[in-house]
């Protein structure tokens, strides 16, 4: 039977000049990847390139019509804020005005990275998933506004190495979307368990992973901010110095410590390391969830994290948005601080729990700030090195004494 005629027959030829080696190499790669011919492989490369670069491969910009405002359902309203149940892209592209938001304070889902291989491919997929949000954030943020993203790291499953996905996200936001990195912060959670147990406790080739990165970005290099809003108590030695005076002198580092150093400014400028234990297991929110049989959100951040950035970067009356609202921690903090606010959340269950933060009355900000956390000086505990030989295989095998035991689950967080 005669072959049916192709509608768009490929009749044109193009000559590409290659060396013997180049031709052999490209043909081998094409064949290894399952392409029937060089032509097919080149067409694939072209389509991938145009898709990635947006060069004639279709407009990659998000179409607001895909995210109409009507898909957002009003869930809760307070004196200063509101909660929407639905996809926050409808807020970012349809509901919100351009240049209307003073602070986006959020923690995106990071479990999206595939469970099997948090390698580069997954990091790229995460970035692709994030793209419409990045575009929407840029659309709604004011020039004076800030974008703060709390994002935890991840381990490559089965291997004692880390994924790069959160660093890739940062690079994408800066290089592709034009955000500026004002300053990275680190949220140190002193109560974090030593995971993954296999590498930390069993093979002992990694240490406890106790910080989340918090990317503070902005649309211009000069978002509004004032570190006097977030001062911390002076250390004992500084208090002593303020009381007893300081003799101006040159430090070994070459810094000239002048007598202005004696001035009491009401507190010291905090470092970009925020120590907050995420230990809240009882409280109104949890009690309500348990009583109503609603799932407790598994990835909440502590109220002090949004509190720090809201105080540092916004004024009362400013608009704070959390597009990945979860249990509305950002909302409850913003309400307490009299900022206008909006939280969007996809899951109705999480919002049913979040309601308890606002009803019957507003949950106040945590009062107890008195406990400072100690971080020991490195190598503060003397160890006889010969008693602790290095694992020359880098932990590729479990210690002999443990080989028969089943591996504890390797956590990817
Ligand atoms: C890491 S959690 C945020 C937790 C929150 N910071 C808290 O303390 O409760 C991320 C949340 O984003 C939600 N989410 C994911 N995609 C979303 C979207 N397109 N629109 C709105 N919410 C989304 C998830 O359901 C999840 O609850």
From TrEMBL:
Keyword Electron transport: no
Highest taxon above the source species: Bacteria
Enzyme class: transferase
The DNA methylase N-4/N-6 domain, residue ranges: 101-351
Region (Disordered): 388-413
Swiss-Prot/TrEMBL keywords: DNA-binding, Methyltransferase, Restriction system, S-adenosyl-L-methionine, Transferase
PROSITE patterns per the UniProt record, alphabetical: N4_MTASE (PS00093)
Catalytic activity: a 2'-deoxycytidine in DNA + S-adenosyl-L-methionine = an N(4)-methyl-2'-deoxycytidine in DNA + S-adenosyl-L-homocysteine + H(+); a 2'-deoxyadenosine in DNA + S-adenosyl-L-methionine = an N(6)-methyl-2'-deoxyadenosine in DNA + S-adenosyl-L-homocysteine + H(+)
Entry-linked InterPro entries: DNA_methylase_N4/N6 (IPR002941), MeTrfase_CN4_CS (IPR017985), RM_Methyltransferase (IPR001091), SAM-dependent_MTases_sf (IPR029063)
Positions of transmembrane segments: none
Gene Ontology biological process terms, A to Z: DNA restriction-modification system; methylation
GO MF annotations, alphabetized: DNA binding; N-methyltransferase activity; site-specific DNA-methyltransferase (adenine-specific) activity; site-specific DNA-methyltransferase (cytosine-N4-specific) activity
Pfam families, alphabetized: N6_N4_Mtase
E.C. code: 2.1.1.-
Similarity comment: Belongs to the N(4)/N(6)-methyltransferase family. N(4) subfamily.
Record's protein name: Methyltransferase
Species of the source: Rhodovulum steppense
């Amino acid at each position: 039977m005669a072959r049916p005629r192709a509608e768009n027959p490929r009749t044109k030829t193009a000559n590409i000049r290659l060396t013997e080696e180049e031709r052999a190499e490209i043909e081998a790669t094409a064949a290894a990847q399952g392409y029937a011919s060089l032509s097919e492989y080149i067409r694939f490369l072209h389509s991938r390139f145009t898709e990635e670069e947006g060069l004639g491969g279709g407009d990659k910009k998000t179409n607001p019509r895909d995210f109409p405002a009507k898909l957002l359902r009003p869930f809760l309203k307070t004196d200063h804020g509101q909660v929407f149940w639905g996809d926050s892209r409808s807020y970012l592209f349809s509901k919100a005005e351009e240049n209307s938001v003073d602070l986006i304070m959020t923690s995106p889902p990071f479990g999206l990275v595939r469970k099997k291989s948090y390698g580069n491919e997954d990091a790229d997929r995460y970035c692709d998933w994030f793209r419409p949000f990045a575009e929407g954030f840029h659309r709604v943020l004011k020039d004076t506004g800030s974008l703060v993203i709390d994002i935890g790291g991840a381990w490559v499953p089965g291997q004692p190495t880390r994924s790069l996905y959160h660093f890739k996200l940062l690079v994408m936001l800066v290089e592709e979307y034009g955000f500026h990195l004002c300053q990275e912060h680190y949220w140190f959670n002193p109560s974090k368990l030593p995971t993954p147990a296999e590498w930390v406790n069993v093979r002992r080739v990694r240490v406890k992973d106790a910080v989340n990165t918090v990317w503070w970005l902005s649309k211009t290099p000069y978002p509004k901010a004032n570190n006097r809003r977030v001062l911390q108590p002076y250390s004992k030695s500084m208090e002593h110095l303020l009381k007893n005076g300081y003799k101006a002198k040159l430090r070994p580092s070459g810094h000239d410590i002048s007598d202005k150093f004696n001035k009491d400014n009401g507190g010291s400028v905090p470092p970009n390391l925020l120590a907050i234990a995420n230990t809240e297991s009882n409280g109104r929110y949890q009690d309500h969830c348990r009583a109503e049989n609603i799932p407790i959100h598994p990835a909440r951040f502590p109220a002090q994290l949004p509190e720090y950035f809201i105080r540092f970067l916004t004024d009362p009356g400013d608009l704070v948005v959390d597009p990945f609202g979860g249990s509305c921690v950002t909302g409850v903090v913003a309400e307490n601080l009299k900022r206008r606010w909006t939280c969007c959340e996809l899951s109705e269950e999480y919002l049913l729990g979040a309601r308890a933060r606002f009803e019957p009355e507003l949950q106040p900000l945590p009062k107890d700030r008195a406990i400072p956390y100690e971080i020991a000086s490195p190598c503060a505990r003397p160890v006889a090195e010969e008693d602790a030989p290095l694992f020359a295989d880098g932990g590729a095998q479990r210690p002999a004494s443990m080989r028969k035991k089943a591996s504890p689950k390797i956590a990817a967080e």
